[in-house]
């Protein structure tokens, strides 16, 4: 279906009718719908068009009830934008979709946390240590290392519970947007 979205964009500068492309089975499968919507969003951004959320809501009436799908699209839109550009985008999204305000806040906070992790990872002298605080997380102990970074047990100070927190290695931050998508 991703290729169908891309082919439809090649054939029409206004973009595809997503409702016609997405099968009934995919409409019920969050992962499949996420793939389609992210492919469409990429095409829209590449062409300097609007984010597509309005048309997605029309094509898939239950979309805003599907938290995972909404968060994936919001992450795709917000990640990699900084400063005034991001503030305008977030304010615009909240204005257009007041029912999504909490989700927009959650995704914005996650982007901030990831950006803080990136900035720490880029500085080779900032080796993570037990007791160090990253945003609302206090590092407890390193649980393991992987190809993209280290996984730490951390205490979430807001929820007062332990979580696993992935801290990316410096060489994974070459393309921030791509790295965010891989990390999530």
Please tag this protein with its features.
184 residues, alpha+beta, four-stranded antiparallel beta sheet, 9 helices, 54% helix, elongated
Tell me what the structure shows.
This protein is α+β, with helices and mostly antiparallel strands. 54% of the residues lie in helices and 15% in strands. It contains 9 helices and 4 strands, in the order H-H-H-H-H-H-H-H-E-E-E-E-H. A 4-stranded antiparallel sheet has the order 1-2-3-4, covered by helices on one side. The longest helix is centred in the middle third of the chain and has 22 residues, at 101-122.
How would you briefly describe this protein structure?
With 184 residues, the protein is of the alpha+beta class.
Beta-strand residue percentage:
5-15%
Summed over residues and divided by their number, the pLDDT gives a mean of 83
Oligomer: single chain
User: How far is the first residue's CA from the last residue's CA?
Assistant: 21 Å
By DSSP (H or I, 4+ residues per run), the number of helices equals: 9
Q: Sheet bearing the most strands, described?
A: 4 strands, antiparallel
Could you tell me the number of beta strands? Answer: 4
Low-confidence stretches: none
Radius of gyration: 18 Å
Structural class, please?
A: alpha+beta
H/E element sequence: HHHHHHHHEEEEH
Largest sheet: spatial strand order:
1-2-3-4
Shape: elongated
Helix content: 40-55%
């Amino acid at each position: 279906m991703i290729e169908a979205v891309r082919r439809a964009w090649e054939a029409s500068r206004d973009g595809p009718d997503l409702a016609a492309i997405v099968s009934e089975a995919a409409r019920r499968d969050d992962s499949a719908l996420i793939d389609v919507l992210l492919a469409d969003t990429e095409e829209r951004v590449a062409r300097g068009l609007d984010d597509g959320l309005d048309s997605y809501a029309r094509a898939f009436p239950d979309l805003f009830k599907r938290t995972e799908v909404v968060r994936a699209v919001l992450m795709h839109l917000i990640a990699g934008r900084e400063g005034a550009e991001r503030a305008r985008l977030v304010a615009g999204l909240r204005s257009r979709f007041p029912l999504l305000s909490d989700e927009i806040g959650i995704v914005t906070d996650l982007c901030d946390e990831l950006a803080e992790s990136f900035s720490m990872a880029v500085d080779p002298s900032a080796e993570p240590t037990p007791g160090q605080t990253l945003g609302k997380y206090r590092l407890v102990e390193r649980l393991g290392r992987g190809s993209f970074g280290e996984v730490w047990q951390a205490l979430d100070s807001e929820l007062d519970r332990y979580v696993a927190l992935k801290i990316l290695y410096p060489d994974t931050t070459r393309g921030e947007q791509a790295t965010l998508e891989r990390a999530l």
